[in-house]
Design goal:
Layout (H helix, E strand, L loop, with lengths): L5 H7 L12 E6 L6 E5 L5 E5 L3 E2 L2 E6 L3 E6 L2 E6 L3
Antiparallel strand pairs: 1-2, 2-3, 4-5, 5-6, 6-7
């Protein structure tokens, strides 16, 4: 038995879904609602876990919710969503 939702498990097992990413890719959000953390896949293939106000290669993590994150670099804001 697993706590992984079926749609997440299906995406995680599709070949090539995360291949050849040229930039930071959001691959998961975890933790309690009061302290959510984001899990990113870096272009190098390494992973990075970050919480609110942490720095990432695409800027500072300024927001995390159940399905997306908001990053800020200078005056530019970028929103990344979970696949699926």
């Amino acid at each position: 038995m697993t706590d992984t939702p079926d749609n997440v498990a299906a995406l995680a097992t599709d070949k090539g879904v995360l291949k050849n990413r040229a930039r930071l890719t959001l691959i998961g959000i975890m933790g309690p609602e009061t302290n959510l953390r984001a899990l990113f896949l870096l272009p190098s293939g390494r992973t990075l876990s970050a919480g609110r106000d942490d720095k990432t290669p695409m800027g500072r993590l300024v927001g995390v919710d159940g399905t997306s994150v908001t990053l800020q670099r200078g005056d530019k804001t970028t929103r990344l969503h979970l696949p699926g």
